[in-house]
Predict the structure of T-complex protein 1 subunit delta.
Amino acid sequence: FFNPRCDTPERSAEFWRREMRAPVRFDGESQRGLKKEKDVRISNIMAAKGVADAIRTSLGPRGMDKMIQKSDGEVLITNDGATILTQMNVAHPTAKMLVELSKSQDIEAGDGTTSVCVIAGSLLDACHQLLVKGLHPTSIAEAFVLAANTCDSILQSCAQPITLSERDRLVDAVRTCLSSKVISQNSETLAPLAVDAVLSVIDTTFATTVDLEAIKIVKQVGGTVDDTELVDGIVFAQGAKKAAGGPTRVENAKVGLIQFCLSAPKTDMENNVVVSDYAAMDRLLREERKHVLGLCKKIKKCGITVLLIQKSILRDAYNDLSLHFLAKMGIMVVADIERNDISHISETLDLLPVAHVNYCVQIACDEVTRSGVGR
C-alpha cells in the first residue's frame, strides 16, 4: 500500500512497517470481549477434560470397570468407553463432541473408544498451556494438522499388512482387544468365534467392511461363557411351538415368513359383536374355525413345512386353534418374531415376508430343529 504522505515507495513501506509494529490499543468493550473469548475456550477445554478424566481410570488391561445404573434401573458393568459415554447425560456442547468422537471410533474401528477420548483430553490440556503462553488458537490448530499428518505417515510405516485369509493373525488381534474387557479370561474361546462369525458373512477376496447387522447375537439365561457356540444359520430365541404336538425337527424344510395373523378377525375399536343366544355363539365359533382352517390349508398348499410368524401388537398373531391345525398338517411353527428381526431373516434366507395368505412363498433349508438353547 502506498501512503500519499511519503514521496517514495520505500518510505511508504517503512511507514507501514512502523504502523504494524505499533501496539494495538483496545477500549474497555474490546477488552471485555477478549476476556469472554478466553473464558469460552477455557470452559470448552475443562468440559472435555472432565469427560476424559471420567473414563481415564478404565483404560488399559489394568483399567477398572464402571458400574452404571440406567434410567430404567438396570445396572450395567463395563469398561468400554463408548458404552460409558453413551449412558452419561452430558449437557456441555464440547462434552457432547467427545461422546460423538467415541461413537465414531466405535463405528470405524470397533475399539479404542476410551483411548481416543483420553488422548483428546490430553491434547486439549496441552492447548490450554499454549494459550496461557500467548499462542494464537489458529497457530495451534495449524500445528495440530501438521502433527496429524506426521503421525499418519509414522503409523503407515509401522503398520503390518494383513489379509482376511490369515485367520491366526486375526484371532491374535481380536484376543488383544478382549484383553481389557470383563470377559478377558474367556478370550481364548470368544476370539475364534468372533473371527469365524465375521468371515462367514463377507467375501474374503475383496471385502473391506463388514455389516455387523448380519451377525445376530442370541442370549440365553444359564450356562457359562464356555457354552457359547457359533451357528451357521439362524437362531430363534423363541423356539418352536410344541404345545399342540407339532414337529420340533424338520429336514429339507420349506420355510415361509408371514406378517398376517392366524386368528379370528377382529372388529374396529369402536365396534362390538353382540351374541344374544347359544345358537349365535355356536355359529360364531364355527365361522372362526372355518376361517382359521382356511388360512392353514392355504399355507399347507404352498408347500411350507416351517412357518415363521411375526409378533403382532394389535391382536393375537396366532391362537391355539391355528397351532392345532398346523400341528395336524405337520408344520413347525416359530412365532412371536420381533419386527426388528424380520429384515435380518429375510436377507439371510433370501425370503420375502408376505402380508396376505394368497401370496405365500417358501425357501428351502437343510434342517430346522429345536434344541435346549431355543433354536
